From TrEMBL:
UniProt-listed CDD domains: RPI_A (cd01398)
Active site: 111 (proton acceptor)
Role: Catalyzes the reversible conversion of ribose-5-phosphate to ribulose 5-phosphate.
Keyword tags: Isomerase
Catalyses which reaction(s): aldehydo-D-ribose 5-phosphate = D-ribulose 5-phosphate
Enzyme class name: isomerase
Organism of derivation: Pseudogemmobacter lacusdianii
Name by which UniProt lists this protein: Ribose-5-phosphate isomerase A
InterPro entries according to UniProt: NagB/RpiA_transferase-like (IPR037171), Ribose5P_isomerase_typA_subgr (IPR020672), Ribose5P_isomerase_type_A (IPR004788)
Binding partners and assembly: Homodimer.
Family: Belongs to the ribose 5-phosphate isomerase family.
Amino acid sequence: MPADLNPIDKAKFIAAKRAVGFVQDGMKLGLGTGSTAAWMVRCLAERIREEGLRVVGVPTSTRTAELAVSLGVPLSTLDEVKWLDLTIDGADEFDPSLNLIKGGGAALLQEKIVATASDQMIVITDAAKEVVQLGAFPLPVEVIPFGWQTTKALVEETLVSMDVLGRDVTLRMTGDRPLVTDESNYILDLHLNRIGNPRQLALVLNQIPGVVENGLFIDICDIVIIGHADGRAVVR
Ligand code: 5RP
């Protein structure tokens, strides 16, 4: 383990290291986005360097691509490889059914496409992301910039019609401008508190014109690895 890590980074590193242990020679891998996924890319680079592991990665964001390239992890595109053996990614929340909220790092669209095109998805996390019910973390929804205020109003109307508890919807900003995703879209954050029926909400949100994708990952994740600062990795 790298020296001088704070407890949160230790936990993330432990989870990442354990997940990278699942990688086998010749695998095609989806590489997630975020601070935990960045540890996974570093651990993967170490195995490539030290064991001569031959893998190819499909990154889920420009950030992950840049990190992978800087560490010598070979990359490809989803269109080139078409299907992946394994995706390893972080999450913002996971529930007892291993359903997730993702998109805190604004990469949910590529993350969902890549994870769905994988035989297996492993989520790596620290214990703080475990919840009984999804929704305390604001649910990211990627929308196209054209008419985004109308899309936002339609999302709000939908939340009212579904009797969702929290209905505050905000446009994600970076400084005084809307945050723009790798796919040139905007992100709406839905402050819902609790999501009673994540499966239904995921389906309904994606039917709204202007919505590209939402951050609910339902029945996509197979395994969650929870890292702890004391060195334990708990597998769910
Ligand atoms: C990016 C994501 C990330 O996986 C999620 O935000 C977790 O990030 P971190 O590992 O930094 O806590 O969904 O879109």
